Amino acid sequence: MDIIDRLQEIIDYAGLNVSSFAKKIGVVDQTIRGIVVQRRNKPGFDILAKILQTFTWINAEWLITGKGEMIKQETTAKTENSPSLTELIQYLREKDLKIEKLIEEKTELKIKFEMAKKTNVQKEEQIRTLPTTQG
């Protein structure tokens, strides 16, 4: 079961449809529809945070990783193998920042590549226009 299936399970368990679920967590209907129905995207940090803030009975570890039960247990004793919600949120934030940096790096490298390619074409043109010496 992937995270999209877990979202659908929450929607079903709460007795909602995609539209009412989106409204309840405060996002545009098309955003949730693109994730759950069309399966085009995976939910980002903001959506996961809104779900956990709205449906306080959801086990964050289950939502994010699929481990454990969907509904929080009454006892909130933390074991060594069970990260806290704060740790999971911090982990997601770090991953989001890393992805943003990689996107920025890719854009910068693409620009540098295009500039180098243009310079290379210009130098090739200059070489072609040089007079040839015959011996």
What is this structure's SSE topology?
Elements: H1 3-13, H2 18-25, H3 29-37, H4 45-54, H5 60-65, H6 85-129
Helix pairs in contact: 2-3
Explain briefly what this protein structure is.
This protein has helices spanning 3-13, 18-25, 29-37, 45-54, 60-65, 85-129. By secondary structure, it is mainly alpha-helical.
Main pleated sheet? none
Q: Uncertain segments of ≥5 residues (pLDDT<50)?
A: none
Question: What's the overall average pLDDT, rounded?
Answer: 88
Query: How does the overall form come out from the CA principal axes?
Result: elongated
- Provide the succession of SSEs: HHHHHH
Number of helices: 6
Helix fraction, binned, reads 55-70%
Q: What is the terminal-to-terminal distance?
A: 75 Å
Q: How much of the residues is beta strand, in percent?
A: under 5%
- What is the radius of gyration? 25 Å
Structural class: mainly alpha
Say how many strands there are: 0
